[in-house]
Amino acid sequence: MKNAPHRPFALGALAWLLAASLTACASKTKPPGVESAAPPPLAEELKPLQGHWEGEGAGGKCTITITGNSLNYTNSSGSFNTTFILPAGAEPRQLHATIQACSPPSKDPIGKVVFAIFKIEDGTLLLGTYDGSDTPPKNFDAVLDRYAVKKVPLQKKDAGPSHTR
Questions:
Q1: By percentage, how much of the chain surpasses pLDDT 70?
Q2: What would the pLDDT profile of 116-132 be if each residue is shown by its tens digit?
Q3: How many CB atoms lie within 10 A of CB 120?
Q4: What's the CATH code of the domain at 72?
Q5: What's the mean pLDDT when you consider all of the chain?
Q6: Do the Cβ atoms of 97 and 114 come closer than 8 Å?
Q7: Which domain holds residue 93?
Q8: What pLDDT sits at residue 141?
Q9: Residues 86-101, mean pLDDT to the nearest whole number
Q10: Residues 69, 144: Cα–Cα separation, whole Å
Q11: Which residue has the higher pLDDT, 99 or 30?
Q12: Nearest Cα to 143, choosing from 107, 116, 124?
């Protein structure tokens, strides 16, 4: 009997792929002597996805952080960094995430593409995948793994008490 992949891992892979896709195109370094240029404008279709999302998925509580075309997915089992694309004209909207890194290491290889569909309704990002399929689901009734996350402000780590004189 073939073991089915763990659903939390597949979602993590999707999130990881999304995160890596978003960050892969942005370079944080510049050649010496070159003035800093404004970052390239963000494509309109990516803007609603940007930010830090928290909620529930196939693996329980999870967070998804999307910056540019990079998606980082984290749950209690680990995290995935991904880069993603949004194929134009797809209905429902599709997200194809490529795994760039994961922690701890997983059975899903770096470079694996996770196919998902998504929509944003009432401030909630809904993602749906088939578990390990090489095609996106046709609709949300057909998904095996479902994720529902709400955008929340990213909590900054406390730098400790400030000292004033």
A1: 69
A2: 999 999 999 999 998 76
A3: 13
A4: 2.40.128
A5: 78
A6: yes
A7: 7-23+49-152
A8: 92
A9: 94
A10: 24
A11: 99
A12: 116
Which parts of the chain fold into alpha helices (H)?
Answer: 7-24
- On the 0-12 / 13-18 / 19+ scale of CB atoms within 10 A, 102 is buried
Count of domains observed in the chain: 1
| 28 assigned to some structural domain | no
Block residue for tokens 């892979």: 13
Which DSSP symbol is given to 113?
A: E
Q: What would the two tokens of residue 57 be?
A: 């998925």
Beta 145-152 vs 113-121: how paired, if at all? Answer: unpaired
Single pTM value for the model: 0.70
| 55 is a domain residue | yes
Q: Tell me the three state secondary structure of residue 125.
A: strand
Rounded Cα distance between 146 and 15, Å, is 12
Give me the amino acid identity at 109.
Answer: P
